[in-house]
Write a structure and sequence with these properties.
Helix content: 40-55%
Distance between the termini: 19 Å
Shape: globular
CATH class of the largest domain: Alpha Beta
Radius of gyration: 18 Å
Number of helices: 9
CATH topology of the largest domain: Alpha-Beta Plaits
Structural class: alpha+beta
Mean pLDDT: 88
Largest sheet: 4 strands, antiparallel
Order of helices and strands: HHHHEEHEEHEEHEEHEEH
Length: 249
């Protein structure tokens, strides 16, 4: 599995310690608040909010924390002035990187993202510089341990998936953005363990990096992910197996 799928796979394998889980809950809460602010607080009528809530549940976010994040959308305070910003840039080896952020201060966030790119051997680009290399898709990850990957793949295709990739541990299902929820529900109802289901950006082509460039790129991506204002990071990098193993250790 290449590109963003491989970066996402690395993050899952690495796990999240207690300190980072607190930061993750903050980011998930912001995502819920912004979704509720834009589309209303009723998940039944707000597709983006449903996805945000499901992602929070997938990461074991407490129900009362989710509810508070929804209430902040209409109650003002933290999250009331957040806006979405997309940054595009290049990493080691010329890889394309897209960064989705939620911020209440564009100048602060832009300066922080630019500094991370430059210190990590990359550079921040202008609007549209790399976005054309990605396509918006739904992505569902299923835990395949102890199960037949062929069976899962067939079920995903029958449910409406546009592409399926697998290895010994997981199956990654790609869907059209508007089919994500229907496919996720169909697979969940058949008892397949859903690790995550979200809208994402899939690279149309990947760039293969050697071990040294892979290690450098992975450090850059992690620093971007760890920025308080960053929600998601996408890349078209294809990492060496040795670098993946070392980074995940």
């Amino acid at each position: 599995m290449a590109g963003h799928s491989k970066w996402a796979q690395i993050k899952r394998q690495k796990g999240v310690n207690d300190a980072r889980r607190g930061a993750l809950f903050t980011k998930l809460g912001r995502e819920i608040t912004v979704a509720a602010k834009q589309g209303g607080p009723d998940p039944a009528a707000n597709f983006r909010l449903r996805l945000a809530i499901q992602r929070a549940r997938d990461n074991n976010m407490p129900a009362d924390t989710i509810e508070r994040a929804i209430k902040r959308a209409t109650g003002g305070g933290e999250g009331a002035n957040l806006e979405e910003v997309l940054y595009e840039g290049y990493g080691p080896g010329g890889i394309a990187i897209m960064v989705e952020a939620l911020t209440d201060n564009r100048n602060r966030t832009a300066a922080s993202i630019r500094a991370i790119f430059e210190r990590g051997g990359g550079s921040l680009g202008g609007a549209g510089s790399v976005a054309w290399q990605f396509k918006s898709r739904g992505q569902i990850v299923i835990d395949a341990r102890g199960r037949s990957t062929e069976e899962i793949e067939l079920a995903a295709i029958e449910a409406g998936a546009t592409d399926v990739q697998s290895d010994a541990n997981e199956v990654v299902v790609e869907t059209e953005p508007n089919e994500l929820e229907a496919v996720r529900r169909a697979l969940a109802e058949q008892g397949y363990p859903i690790v995550s289901a979200e809208l994402t950006m899939i690279p149309q082509n990947t760039v293969t990096l050697d071990e040294a460039k892979s290690a450098q790129a992975l450090r850059l991506l992690e620093k971007l992910e760890n920025d308080d204002d960053v929600q998601k990071v996408y890349t078209n990098a294809d990492f060496s197996e040795a670098a993946m193993a070392a980074f995940s250790a």
